[in-house]
Design brief:
553 residues, Porin, two-stranded antiparallel sheet
Amino acid sequence: MRNGLWKTCTGGFVAAVFCAVTVSQSFGADAKSLEEMEKELNALRASVSALTDQIESVKQDKTVASSSSATKNDVETLKNEVSTLKEEMKTAAQAQPALKAEDIAGNVYSEFAKKVKLGGQIKTRAEYANGLYQVPVSNGTLPGATGISNRYSSYDDDYVLNQTRLWADADVNEHLRLFIQLQDARTFGAEGSTVGYAYSNTENSIFDLHQGYFDLKKLFDLPLTVRVGRQEIIWGDHRVIGNFVWSNVGRVFDGGRFMWDTDEIHAEAFAARVDENGFIGKSATGGNWDSNENVYAAQLGLKKLVPGALLEFMYIQKNDQDGSSTNSTLVATGNVRANNNPGVVIHDVGARIDGKIPNIDAIDYTAEAHGQFGDYGDMTQRAWAFAGRAGYTFKEMNWKPRFGFEYDYSSGDDDPTDSTHGTFDNLYPTNHWQNNYGAIDLVSWQNMHDFRGNVKIQPTNKLTAQVDYHYYLLAEAKDGWYLANGSLATPRGSYDTGSSNLAQEVDLTVSYQLYKNVGILAGYSWFNPQSWMNANVADFDTNWFYLQTTVTF
């Protein structure tokens, strides 16, 4: 019996020692995986359990060999070995968490995974237009994609836009953040067929990297963040710098951005490349054309200088050296003579204040003004613009109605044949934002007066409705009428300038938050031409409907 007991215990002891040695070696090796270490630890536990069972078996045999001192010694030996193995297992278990975080940092089970936020959004919008028809931005090959589809007759069409976005936001540590956002933008059926693959020359869906950048935060332990990569940039009310969020594609900037933010001030500067076509040679007169478009901008925001308001100062340089396309476009539209300088370099200096009256927070106001100078082809750029809005919210009344008024002005060119270009350049805006110049997007901040009144109500916490009225005039009747994308709605020509009255517009917008992650937006707009449009463009109304759902997760 004694020999059998020794044989059994010795076999279990050898197996346990082997496991202990193996585990200690595995935890010291960098090449071991987490799964292998867990298997070895489980084997060690099994060995300890087997030895414990053997001890219990020996105890039960005491009645047979109770007087044997050798048996007692065997039991003591087994107990000591079990105690030793348990200590080894405890040490290995304590080392295991450190290995997870250090040696397997890229694994999805690591601590880094807790710092990554994943999200997405699906936005679907159905639209119907009757009158002056503009096609979706993401479908340049559809009829009418170059602007107004038919300037002298009404047009009917409907389409459905779909935008899908997926993103990952990773706070790697206190000094590094990464953000990646993919986007697919398409119009239902625009590929020609949804069976199989569309041909590249008729493809009307866009799948691209919408945003991809990294942030270096608290740089040099200062309140400074440097952001590099493809990114959205929004300033103020989107009037000169915006992400064009209403578009099915949107606007991003490829470049670098410096941001300084404290309780007192916010300052930033960025440089971005808008268009890269490479060097294209020399002009007929010997000038170099590099065909690139860049934007350089800086902003200083003072948070506490004006009580209850944010005061911002801005500088923007639009530097477009696209000699071939810019020059030909300028000549075709009458904005410039045949010239030796094809580039456009505009310096924009602006200021904006946004806030509420101290101690009367029911009154809100915003004012923004810009002046521009520089070169527009071979002409001198001299233009300016102003926008101001104010509103009063009756917070104690049911539905909390807000009544507001706004006036927007931007200069036009009073003489297209002279050496001065007076039309304000709208730069890189989101003109649709807050219905700045009408929801139907037929007017931009160029050569215009816009008188606007609106009423906004909130019947419930989830439901908001707003009605806007706009009356538009041209600042210069000799200049053209510009769409929200900045292009002339009609070719420049000998306009009938008997009147500057352009049009009037009514917008109804309703938003409803169905669930926490599901929002619904619907609207109707009516655009009615006035005397200038009737004489030079069209004398029929435009009606536009849309219904949009946005699901975010």
